[in-house]
Amino acid sequence: MANFIDRRLNAKGKSTVNRQRFIERYKSKIKKSVSDAVTQRSVTDIDTGESISIPTKDLSEPIFHQGSGGIRKQVHPGNKEFTAGDKIPRPDSGEQSGSGDGNASDTGDGDDDFIFQISKDEYLELLFEDLELPNLQNTELNKISEYQIHRAGFTNDGVPANINIVRSLQSSLARRIALTVSKKKELEQTKIELEKLFNVPGSDIDEIERKKNIIQSLEGRIKRVPFIDTFDLRFNNYAKHEIPSSQAVMFCIMDVSGSMDQATKDMAKRFYILLYLFLTRTYKNLDVVFIRHHTQAKEVDEQEFFYSQETGGTIVSSALNLVTEIQKKRFPENEWNIYVAQASDGDNWADDCNKCVETLTKNILPVVRYYSYIEITQRAHQSLWKQYQKLQNDFDNMTVQHIKQISDIYPVFRELFKRQSNSA
């Protein structure tokens, strides 16, 4: 009989390959669970993983087994109820419902659903699979890593052009002091002793000569200490610092007039969160600018953007003008990739729609990578929607979509950023 001994190291991540095979095999079911989870989970934990539930019947593997029918003879050790020749009624062949499919059963035992936990990276990969940023070819050059040279202290090795004279002389002085301080003390003491011998009549001539030899030897040893040595040299050190060249800014515009209730704002927030996570997968440095408006526009933080209550009418052009002002002042189009997302229920002052079209045409659409407008309402579309649809036909970097309920958010998002057929 052969014995197999597994001597492989118990390294971490040993099941990574099997995990990826499992995800690939049941990708359709996992993606369905992920898309359902987008509209059900809260926005505060949108950046975490997800527990995926798969019915156990969908995980069944083909096996060889005996079919029903025929005569079988079995021996059951320890049987106290039956003897040879007794007939046992065949159990029902019907499958019992388990807790996994949500159906109750008063008999038999069922199998629970298989719960599979996916990580944050796996969740986002499945969430944004087959999606891409439109007009991304325009930003490829901005994704090249750039580096800037800056001072990073001192080093013992380098080229002559980078020698730091002050640090080298300081090191030389420290070395010469350390090597000669004891000799100088001995030399000074010997000179004092020799002076005493000269002042004492009848001093031993041999002792005087010995002191002179010692003094001469010490002076020679001190002079032989070099003024500067290769060990003393110090060089300016320089290091490369990466400059974030792949950077983008996302302008979030939302109507907060009296017609926008909190449920509508929550749906807009879910869309903004999806857009933010999607952009962070492409750009290392992503800034977010929150602009809220009713009759007047204002740049605010995230808390005020989503939860502050306002009343009054709606003038959308005020927000678009503020976007133009901030973009020109802080985010030049030659340095930043600019994205704008606008959420509204469609209300706007009738005379203001033409101003919105003019601002978008002249100032915003020529400099942004993508402008997405989502209208969150169950009513009929009004003049703002119609004007934006005309712009959508004239500009390929603008799109409009309609959201009625929470379940529409993820499908609309995928429609906005679906991969184009002519993409590489």
TrEMBL record:
Region entry Disordered, spans: 60-112
UniProt-listed InterPro entries: UPF0229 (IPR006698)
Pfam families, alphabetized: DUF444 (PF04285)
Compositionally biased spans, kind Basic and acidic residues: 83-93
UniProt feature, compositional bias: Polar residues: 94-106
Family per record: Belongs to the UPF0229 family.
PANTHER family: UPF0229 PROTEIN YEAH
Protein name (database record): UPF0229 protein D5R81_04075
Organism in which the protein naturally occurs: Parashewanella spongiae
Taxonomy of the source species: Bacteria, Pseudomonadati, Pseudomonadota, Gammaproteobacteria, Alteromonadales
